[in-house]
């Protein structure tokens, strides 16, 4: 199946750090700062949104690999912005460069890989695991 994707496609998402996004709330640390798991979620959401609208009905992407650095801390209430660039397409495997900035500086960067799947087939295979 052909997918209407091109290397260089971009997407951006912005959010404000809430209490639910803090390391102390998520359990990834004890400080009241933007949690690494929250940053990773933002990176995945931004990468997914870069391509999902360009896929045929019934298809989506799933995250398969992350290699990220959380460079600087961000306090509660500050805005963060993620940008994703589709850097490589290998059939159904997609690679993204992701970067995150708060209102002061770059706070995260890395690479994220996603894989194109048929949603129904993917969920059927997943549900069949219960029958093993």
UniProtKB/TrEMBL annotation:
Q: Which GO terms describe its molecular function?
A: acyltransferase activity
Segments forming domain Fluoroacetyl-CoA-specific thioesterase-like:
17-119
Q: Which Pfam families does UniProt cross-reference here?
A: FlK (PF22636)
Protein residues bound to CoA: 63
State the active site. 36, 44, 70
The residues the record assigns to binding substrate are 63, 114
**InterPro entries (UniProt xref):** FlK (IPR025540), FlK-like_dom (IPR054485), HotDog_dom_sf (IPR029069)
Q: What are the alphabetically sorted keywords of the record? A: Acyltransferase, Transferase
Q: Which CDD domains match?
A: PaaI_thioesterase (cd03443)
By what name is this protein known? Dihydrolipoamide acyltransferase
Phylogenetic classification of the source organism? Bacteria, Bacillati, Bacillota, Clostridia, Eubacteriales
């Amino acid at each position: 199946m052909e997918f209407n994707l091109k290397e260089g496609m971009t997407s951006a998402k912005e959010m404000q750090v809430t209490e639910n996004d803090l390391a102390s709330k998520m359990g990834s640390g004890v400080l009241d700062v933007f949690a690494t798991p929250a940053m990773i979620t933002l990176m995945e959401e931004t990468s997914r949104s870069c391509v999902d609208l360009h896929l045929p009905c019934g298809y989506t992407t799933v995250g398969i690999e992350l290699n990220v650095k959380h460079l600087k801390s961000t306090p509660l209430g500050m805005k963060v912005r993620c940008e994703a660039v589709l850097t490589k397409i290998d059939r159904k495997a997609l690679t993204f460069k992701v970067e995150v900035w708060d209102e002061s500086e770059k706070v995260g960067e890395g690479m994220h890989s996603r894989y194109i799947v048929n949603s129904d087939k993917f969920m059927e295979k997943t549900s069949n695991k219960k029958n093993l």
